[in-house]
Amino acid sequence: MSLSVASADVHQGFDAHREAAALANPFKRRLGLVGDINASAELFRRVLPVSRLKVMDPDRSWWHYGVASRFGSIVLGAWILPPVQIVVAEQYGLSVFLGYAGEQHIQQNSRHWICCSNTCLILPGKPLTIEASLFSGLAFHLESQRLLKTATGMAGLSQTPDAWVKSVHETPGWEPSREPGLATLQAMLRQAIVMAELQAGSSQSLLDRLQLDVLIYRLLAAMIFPELREESSFERLTHRIEAGRDSFDELLDFIKSNLAEPLNLTQLEMQSHYSRRALQYTFRERLGCTPLQWIRNQRLDEARLRLQKPSPGETVASISSECGYRTQSLFSVDFQQRFHVRPSQLLREARSTRIR
Asked: What is this structure's pTM?
């Protein structure tokens, strides 16, 4: 069911704007011409918390073609826009943008996204700025908790994986349209939207019974969480949950197995799929220190065990190197600060005890 446009001068047809008539849009037969920029902003706010709409060419009269429709819990906005700048305020959840023709540039924090034909963007609800050329697309809002609940149900799990929660709340955004193997899912998403448009003239109660919003949430969950697409990843996830372990436990195991390597936050992000901010928070919350402090303590604990039970030919330099230290001098300083004894002294005492 279409949502009415308050106080707008709305007309059907593209006679006044031939450039708009040439652009594809799944809701094209229902797009209305809005000739007042304030009415356009009001229509946008049905979908996005728009705080400003600015014409890029002030010498031209304002126009845009748009419609807002509700499908279950999803309010979807479709539009064809002239060159315009749109400032969107912060909101809770995620926003999905689908491009059909033309190009729009989206700036959010330090990230720059381009939405054009066949592009799908899933962005966090942080403030953003959109600069569009002549553009045709649509957008709708996702509730984070419903997305996580949907993904958890699809996986057949009793609890939502910690990594999924953090990926949704800490994500800089996804562009699944550029990831290999996801073209089919995006095609299915676009087809679901076409089905929604075909039913737009029916009663709202029928649309609710069809539950097209449920299908859309399930498709987006499959696009966002790779474990739902890859059988081996899903099996590992299920085993981890059944064993009472999460992705953070696996990260700690990885660190312990690679203490000799030059570990840093970038590597930990790649290994765990936690963001840098989430890593800092989780280590503080669960271990009471930063990631690098925990790694250093693990290296020092491992070095003390080896110094207390050295193998023939081992030295302070060889042990410190194999525990991830690049210089013996730094190792000696850290070791004395932690254990209040020089590593060379501990090694001598261990050897003298073995001789006796």
From this structure: 0.64
